[in-house]
């Protein structure tokens, strides 16, 4: 359940109301000078979020404005909800990744599956990862390690982004996927981590060669996917894999297995 901050007195709620009319005018005067810019509306709300979260978590001062903007966008620029989401993320990060990063020694079984690769960029510079669903298996007492592996992947992707880039692209290859790969708890946990703690990071996810039996599991997972994430997921027809991918990824950046020129590079070697 999402936590909503209860601010009494002249706090965030009042600030939101004060900004409501002014923001409409500010948006009209904001010039787009790059692929994506911080609007005047966002700048004002970033300041409000920053003032609030830094009061409750001084370590938030280390975070840049783009991080805060991602939480704002994930909550449709609602300052109160974005602040709650950010504080939840900060608390989780300190607890789950106390050393700042996940080491290979913390995910040995997941790495051994050899199922995630990172290489190349799409046409707008977003890094690409490929995951082979048929190589993922639910392991006894392995959910916590899998969660750490998800964080390891996401942190690797974020670290590989060029300056100014905030999103990545995923390719989920499901050829050979079967019921032994149907780790519903793991899938839902991965979605929760992505949506709650890495908002506005996913640019697009292509799902390839999804077998009929996968769709039964998909129906169980689907309710846990928020609308913003759903709009970024594309199921690709088997006969249109290369033609679909090539629309977004140049051939010299596309993995060889899809008709491109790049070899797959294991995530731990990227």
Low-confidence stretches: 1-12, 14-34
Shape, principal axes of CA atoms: globular
So how many helices? 10
Average predicted local confidence, pLDDT = 88
Distance between the termini: 36 Å
What share of the residues does DSSP label as strand, in percent? 5-15%
Annotation, overall tally of beta strands: 5
Order of helices and strands: HHHHHEEHEHEHHEH
What does the radius of gyration come to?
20 Å
Would you tell me the structural class of the helices and strands?
A: alpha/beta
Please list the strands of the largest sheet in the order they lie side by side. 1-2-3-4-5
Task: Describe this entry's structure for a reader.
There is one protein chain. Helices cover 45% and strands 11% of the residues. Helix 2 crosses helix 3 and helix 6 packs across helix 7. A hairpin with a 5-residue loop joins strand 1 and strand 2. It is α/β, with parallel strands linked by helices and 270 residues long. The chain has ten helices and five strands; from the N terminus they run H-H-H-H-H-E-E-H-E-H-E-H-H-E-H.
